[in-house]
């Protein structure tokens, strides 16, 4: 896995300087533009094309907070493909109530109850975002042990958010049915 932070010469950060990320992107876009290497060997052209692709991917990831959060957790070895992460029982119980309400709304559509459920989910999402924001803000100032502890907590919130995203999709379906 390419380390996009290293590629841009930046420290791993959940909140990198957006201006600096954009500046690095433009700088490397010029440096690795395939048109400048048209007279080079095929190997050199392929290398430049690869670097140009890495630059585009790095910019997409580092300039998007959600993609960046996922990427850092992956980069630090905390996310693995097909991982069966166990969410806390309390959170799952809360989500079970939300899912039950959604199922009830499928059989008995009610715009008011749906609106109230949406407000409830918005509140949960806002609380999660606040917690993620607080943890990611202090990440860089921590030592390695502290960063590891924060990453573990961030991973848990990441999976909760992912679960909530699926609920939000169900709410949108329910809205379109009413």
From TrEMBL:
Domain of life according to the entry: Bacteria
Residues covered by the J domain: 3-75
One example of a Gene Ontology biological process annotation: [2Fe-2S] cluster assembly
Molecular function per GO: ATPase activator activity; protein-folding chaperone binding
Signal sequence annotation: none
Keywords for this protein: Chaperone
InterPro entries in the record: DnaJ_domain, HscB, HscB_C_sf, HscB_oligo_C, J_dom_sf
Pfam families listed in its UniProt record: DnaJ, HSCB_C
Family: Belongs to the HscB family.
PANTHER family listed in its UniProt record: IRON-SULFUR CLUSTER CO-CHAPERONE PROTEIN HSCB (PTHR14021:SF15)
NCBIfam families recorded: hscB (TIGR00714)
Function of the molecule: Co-chaperone involved in the maturation of iron-sulfur cluster-containing proteins. Seems to help targeting proteins to be folded toward HscA.
Protein name in the entry: Fe-S protein assembly co-chaperone HscB
Organism name: Pedobacter steynii
């Amino acid at each position: 896995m390419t380390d996009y932070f290293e590629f841009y010469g930046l420290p791993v950060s959940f909140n990198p300087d957006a201006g600096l990320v954009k500046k690095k992107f433009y700088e490397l876009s010029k440096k690795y533009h395939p048109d400048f290497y048209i007279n080079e060997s095929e190997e050199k052209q392929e290398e430049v094309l690869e670097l140009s692709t890495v630059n585009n991917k790095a910019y997409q990831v580092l300039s998007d907070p959600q993609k960046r959060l996922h990427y850092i957790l992956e980069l630090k070895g905390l996310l693995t493909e097909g991982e069966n992460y166990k969410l806390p029982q309390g959170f799952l119980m809360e989500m079970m109530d939300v899912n039950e309400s959604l199922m009830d709304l499928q059989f008995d559509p009610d715009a008011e109850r749906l609106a109230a459920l949406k407000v409830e989910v918005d509140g949960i999402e806002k609380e999660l975002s606040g917690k993620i924001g607080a943890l990611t803000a202090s990440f860089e100032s921590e030592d390695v042990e502290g960063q590891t502890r924060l990453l573990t907590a961030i991973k848990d919130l990441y999976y909760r958010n992912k679960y909530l995203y699926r609920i939000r999709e169900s709410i949108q379906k329910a809205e379109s049915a009413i």
